[in-house]
# Entry
Amino acid sequence: MAHFAKLDDNNVVLAVHVVNNDVITVDGAESEQAGIDFLTGLHGHDKWKQTSYNGTFRKNYASIGFTYDAGRDAFIAPQPWASWTLNETTCQWEPPVPYPAFDQENPKYYSWFEPNQQWIEVTGPQN
# Structure
């Protein structure tokens, strides 16, 4: 199965559609344009980009709200916090402070606290 992101005029992902491989196979090879033509004919919308679950192309799997950046040929999630920067290699947002290392013996979970730009421990209900 192939997956295609439906884009608005600003290249923001509106939806992700699945297309059967036999639709996009032309002369034994995968054709993105065949998928775009199929979806355009089906939905009357002509802005589509193929996306990949395993990140073999376009860096990240497209999700609703992501933006397709043509210059990077990548799908990029919305910036989660103002202090986070885009990694140009992975096209993923990175915090200014790395997530704390996971301790298998004493697992803790953290959430980003933007005002102090730090990770804070998150505690949940005790069983």
DSSP finds two helices and eleven strands in the chain. The chain has a mean pLDDT of 95.
